[in-house]
Design a protein that fits this description.
This protein is α+β, with helices and mostly antiparallel strands. It has a single domain, classed as 2-Layer Sandwich (Metal Transport, Frataxin, Chain A). It contains three helices and three strands; from the N terminus they run H-H-E-E-E-H. The chain has a three-stranded antiparallel β-sheet with strand order 1-2-3. Helix 1 packs across helix 2. The radius of gyration is 12 Å and the shape is globular.
């Protein structure tokens, strides 16, 4: 199992437990593009143009709802 597969499985199984750095690594591995940072928010775009602003939550974790938004966009964009 590759690191990408492990990160994706972690996001699916427990979005509340995903570290923010790992979440951004997963975004980059899925060919998302970091467009800009405005304060603490970083704006990522999917390969098909969906916009997702993200920011770190408490204790360096990704915010669970942002992980769920990412997964929902991936499902919509995957044929």
């Amino acid at each position: 199992m590759t690191r990408h597969d492990k990160l994706l499985a972690a996001a699916i199984n427990n979005p509340a437990g995903l570290r923010f750095d790992d979440f951004e690594t997963l975004l980059a591995q899925c060919d998302w593009t970091l467009d800009r940072q405005d304060g603490s928010h970083r704006v990522w775009y999917s390969p098909k143009g969906a916009r997702l602003p993200v920011q770190a939550g408490q204790a360096g974790k990704a915010k669970p709802y942002q992980g769920r938004q990412f997964l929902a966009i991936c499902r919509r964009e995957t044929p």
